[in-house]
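User: Let's play a game. I give you a shape written as tokens, and you guess the letters that built it. Ready? Here's round one.
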């Protein structure tokens, strides 16, 4: 079956040169972007109930742009003036760069990992006498606490925002040739919105092993996988699949 329509369960890319737009043009397919999950901030009262006192921490670990936004939102709500001496440990350059929205970058102590939490751990270990706060969502990857405990640092995780299933009722009578997922939460959202969902001719594309596992647990057949040695990105995996089936 030829591919004409694709639904990506994420927000539309904000950059003009996104490989998705290139894929759309090259393969003459229509790609829609609809987030299956979204983030909602928790209240400052809920943060306080987690016994978090922002004045007690000398360093903060930021694993995403959401973590940055919600840390500064809570700080403002609690009338906490973020000290210039606070150390920032950022998962990636993208997260570190995003910090500029809130702080004067060159005047702050900012330490940046490459991509994974394991990349960041040597930097955290170097400053193991600091008291670390990890503001995160309610769905923290298990390797994060495992790594921090292994490092033996003084740290605390607090939920500053939650991952919530989006309302997809407007898609009830809409079908796509390919559905693209990037997290187990996206799969969960599909079945919470449509408990009677049947795959039929729809192809399922997934990114990452945990997402593949979640898809299979829900009885879905995974047709397109990324990353692989041949297709390290989702757009490359889609490109390869579509080029094969659409030439027939």
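Assistant: Ready! My guess for every position:
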């Amino acid at each position: 079956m030829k591919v004409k329509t694709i639904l990506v369960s994420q927000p539309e890319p904000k950059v003009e040169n996104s490989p998705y737009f290139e894929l759309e043009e090259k393969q003459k397919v229509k790609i829609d972007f609809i987030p299956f999950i979204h983030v909602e901030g928790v209240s400052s009262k809920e943060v306080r109930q987690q016994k978090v006192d922002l004045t007690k921490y000398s360093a903060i670990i930021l694993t995403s742009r959401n973590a940055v936004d919600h840390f500064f939102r809570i700080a403002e709500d609690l009338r906490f003036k973020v000290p210039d001496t606070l150390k920032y440990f950022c998962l990636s350059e993208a997260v570190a760069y995003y910090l500029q929205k809130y702080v004067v970058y060159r005047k702050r102590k900012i330490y940046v990992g490459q991509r994974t939490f394991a990349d960041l751990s040597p930097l955290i270990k170097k400053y193991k006498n600091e008291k670390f706060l990890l503001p995160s969502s309610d769905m923290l990857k298990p390797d994060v606490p495992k790594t921090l405990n292994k490092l033996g640092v003084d740290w605390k995780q607090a939920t500053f925002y939650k991952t919530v299933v989006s309302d997809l009722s407007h898609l009830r009578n809409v079908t796509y040739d390919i559905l693209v997922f990037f997290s187990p939460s996206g799969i969960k959202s599909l079945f919470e919105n449509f408990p009677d969902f049947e795959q039929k001719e729809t192809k399922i594309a997934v990114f990452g092993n945990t997402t593949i596992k979640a898809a299979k647990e829900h009885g879905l057949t995974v047709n397109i996988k990324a990353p692989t040695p041949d297709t390290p990105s989702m757009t490359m995996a889609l490109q390869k699949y579509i080029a094969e089936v659409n030439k027939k």
